[in-house]
Each structure stands twice: as structure tokens, then as C-alpha cells.
Amino acid sequence: MFYTIFFAAVVFLYGIVIGSFLNVCICRLPIKENIVTTRSHCMSCGYQLKWYDLVPLFSWLALRGKCRKCGAKISVQYPIVEALNGILYLVVFWQCGVSVRAVLYCLLASSLVVISVIDWRTFEIPVGANIFIGLLGAVRIATDLADWKDYIIGFFSVSAVLFVIYIVTKGRGIGGGDIKLMAVSGLLIGWECNVLAFVIGCIAGSVVHIIRMKVSKADHVLALGPYLSIGIFVSALWGEKMINWYMAML
Questions:
Q1: How far apart are CA 226 and CA 125, in angstroms?
Q2: Residue 200 to residue 224: CA distance in whole angstroms
Q3: Spans of all domains in the chain
């Protein structure tokens, strides 16, 4: 029990540290600011943050959500993204155990968090995030060569149909970023789980957005990336069980 708790604590801490970097990506990628060489700073006054201002979760709590220099409010997004990433890492390792698959899916989860927040705000999915997931897919194929066809088919299983929709509707029916996301996710989780991910994402998007349109008068145009991300994550971890359950019901 001690080792289990210790391992879970290490995974969570590692997750929130990575979550801190995800916040950097979320804030800087849309404005084309370098995520590597530019030092962390207050988005209001430009104050360069010290190491003790960058401790995940705890620094935000200690500063009461305000910049140490100018007192400007620091978005609650920062601790939420950090905590969420830590929790997602725990869920992945709980489901997959200690394995290469678990590491790949943790990195996938982090990428999906970045995609979800940026797409929700800007209606654009960063190309770099899709490329990163594609690289994870390449590693997945290399570590599971026996099933390489499933991953290659997965690349086209959903994206090919979406690309036809994109052409027919001249880009009004689906976004190019969504097509790329479903292509690279299929490369990582295989064609069956990728189709399921798309179905889950569409259902989630339809239900949630209809509620938002009724309650908050949201525009009819929706950012599909966050919902596809939910579908991809759920399908990556539980897709095979869900598919097997469904097939047994037939």
C-alpha cells in the first residue's frame, strides 16, 4: 500500500509539473510566442517570474491568484490545468499500469488538454500539438508492429471521410485541424477506437452545445476539438472494452 501511494504521488506531481508547461503552451502558441527560450512572465506587467513563483498549484494558492509585482489577477486556468493533468496521469496509470502505452497516453492526454483549451478560445487547433500526437503514433507502431495495419488504417478511418466533407462544404462543415487531429489519433489508438472516439466526440459536442445554446445563448458554431479530445481519451483507455461489450450485445 505504501509503494502504491508513493507511486501515485510521484505520478501526480509529475503530471502537475507537466501541466505547468501546458499552461505556457496554451498562453503562447496562439500569439506565436516562443515556448522554450522566452522566460515565464506576467502577461500583464511582464514581470519575470522567479522559481518560487512557478511551483505548480502551490504558487498560485500562495499568491492568492495574483501577480507578485503588479497584483493583476492570474487566471484560475493555471491551477485547473495543472491539477487536471495530474489527475489524468493517475487515471492513465490506473488503467494501463506501468507500460510504454501508459507513457504514450499520458503525453496524449497532455496534448489533448492544450488542444481543448486553445480550440475552445480561438477555434483553431495548433499544428504543433497534432504533430506531437503523430509522433506518439509513430512510437506506438514501433512498439506494436504486429498490429501496424490497424494504426495505418486508423490514420484514414475518420480523417478521409472528414476531408471529403471539408471539400464538399468548402471548409464550412469541418475544420482542417479537426481532420488532422482524427488522423493522428487514429495512428495512435487504431481504427476501431478512433471511429468510436469520433462518435463519442460528436455525441458529447451535440448534447453540450445544445444545452449551451439554450442556457447561455451560445452561437451555433462550436469548437469541436474539446469534444473530440474527450472521445479520444475515453476511447484510448476504454475503447476496446466498449467495443467488445457492444459486439457481445449483437
A1: 10
A2: 12
A3: 1-98, 125-250
Compute and round to an integer the Cα radius of gyration of the chain: 19
Task: Return the amino acid letter for 123.
Answer: F
pTM of the model: 0.93
* Residue pLDDT, tens place only, 88-98: 999 999 999 99
Q: Which of 109, 74, 120, 119 has its CA nearest to residue 236?
A: 109
Distance CA 236, CA 187 (A): 12
Question: How many C-beta atoms lie closer than 10 Å to residue 17's C-beta?
Answer: 16
Q: What is the pLDDT of residues 129-151, one digit of tens each?
A: 999 999 999 999 999 999 999 99
- 208: exposed, middle or buried (Cβ count in 10 Å: 0-12, 13-18, 19+): middle
**Which residue, chain included where needed, has cell 507578485?**
68
Residues 6+ apart with CB under 8 A from 77: 23, 26, 117
Residue 215 or residue 185, greater confidence: 185
109: Cβ–Cβ under 8 A, 6 or more apart, which residues? 85, 88, 89, 92, 233
Identify the helix (H) or strand (E) that includes residue 85: helix 77-96
Cα-based angle 235, 180, 163 (whole degrees, multiple of 5): 105
Neighbours of 84 (CB within 10 A): 19
Using one digit for the tens of pLDDT, what is the confidence trace for 27-39?
999 988 888 777 8
Helix (H, G, I), strand (E, B) or coil at 178: helix
φ and ψ of 144, to 5 deg: -145, 55
Alpha-carbon span 229 to 215, nearest angstrom: 23
